[in-house]
Amino acid sequence: MNRKIKLSLFIPLFVMAFITSCVKDEVTSIAMSKLTANLNIGQTDSLIATIEVTGNINKFPVTWTSSNPNIVTVSNGKIQGASTGKSTITAKSGNLTTVCEVNITDQIYPTLNAGVLAYYGGEFKTGVSNLFVVGLAGPTDTMYVFINTPISATTSVPVGEYKSLTTINNNSDLVPFTINPGLFQNGIQYNSWYFGNFVSPITNGTIKITNLSNSIYTIEVDLADGYGNNIYGNYVGNLNYSDQTTRSNTPSIKNILKSKTSKFNLQLLHFKIKD
Prior knowledge:
Elements: H1 2-21, E1 26-32, E2 36-40, E3 44-46, E4 49-54, E5 63-66, E6 72-75, E7 78-81, E8 85-93, E9 96-105, E10 107-108, E11 114-121, E12 129-137, E13 142-150, E14 160-164, E15 178-179, E16 183-185, E17 188-190, E18 193-195, E19 199-213, E20 216-225, E21 230-238, E22 240-243, H2 253-260
Parallel strand pairs: 2-9, 10-21, 11-22, 14-15
Antiparallel strand pairs: 1-4, 3-7, 5-8, 6-7, 8-9, 11-12, 12-13, 13-15, 13-18, 14-19, 16-17, 18-19, 19-20, 20-21
């Protein structure tokens, strides 16, 4: 009796082990988290490839390739725009593949519906110009444009066209009706920046400012960033004036813009400004 019981218990265990040993190691499906993506030059995104396997999943790593690395680079699913054009990103595991078609453009059209005008006065001690920061923002976009105005401008920004300086060797380069593409002064970084889906330093271009009445302005933006993107935009509305030479009595430019936008998410990793 005891022998029969032991044998009957042994048989199903043996059958289960036999069946398990016959399971084939293979990828049964693979899927990409998105089939298409649109990015600007320099912008990044993450793709995820989900696989289903039978057998040992450790035998099936996912490999990533770009059909044109000069347009889109990829590393472990992280993609980045390198130049304009299209590239196919392929994820492969086992004998199966899945793809994402990526389009890279160099055109940025930010949505701008809130504005502030911050006055910093003779911050750079040029003797010929004052520093203003035009801050523009929208639900997901933020832009800071550092402009130099005539020394007589203290409560409003003069109308006209402001052209970006290509290089700044010293303070004598900071003349009225120019834009600062990048300047360090006493450890503080004074740059013109665009913050949208990614951080983008403004390097050149122009903005045209028209004063309609009192603090109502029209601002036409035609700028370019360090990645080679073109940034176009128009803002019509009030520019709330903030005297940053008396910071203890006025809200900071960041807080003013934040109160005007519902989804304000300013990235300050590469941007410093005195509050």
